[in-house]
Amino acid sequence: MLHPQLTLVRADSAYSGTLVDWAQRVLRLTLKIVNRPPGQKGFIVLPRRWVVERGISWIMRARRNCRDHERLARHSEAHILWTSITLMTRRLTRKRPRRAKPPLAAAA
User: Fold this and answer.
1) How many percent of the chain have pLDDT more than 90?
2) Where in the sequence is the domain holding 54, given as residue range(s)?
3) pLDDT per residue over 55-74, tens digit each?
């Protein structure tokens, strides 16, 4: 298995059906289908699905990833990896305002 720490995958209702059985049998993954509530119209935030969509939108903000100009899949993969590294290093090096230290408790 390529990523043994990955055990649960959430997917859109479009992926229900035989894909659930295939993921369990071949990839040894639990594929959980996230459905929208019955009778719901319009946009609704589905549980845990927004995490994936948010991550994809962060990656797609990089101009090179918005279009598929690469001949080889490994080139696209390298660009996505480079974007992810850039995002992570910016977050790790971001300057945050210091919090004020709490006052020392008076000795009783």
Assistant:
1) 4
2) 1-36+46-66
3) 888 888 887 777 777 788 88
Give how many domains the chain has, as a whole number. Answer: 1
Mark out the alpha helices in the chain (DSSP H runs).
18-22, 49-60, 63-66, 73-92
Q: Cα torsion for 94, 66, 55, 71, to the nearest 10°?
A: -110
Token output for 40? 């719901």
Q: How many CB atoms lie within 10 A of CB 12?
A: 13
Instruction: Supply the pLDDT for residue 108.
Output: 53
Quick check: is 23 in a domain? yes
Instruction: Write the single-letter amino acid at 32.
Output: K
Q: Does any domain span residue 87?
A: no
pTM of the model: 0.51
Closest CA relative to residue 91, chosen from 80, 103, 83: 83
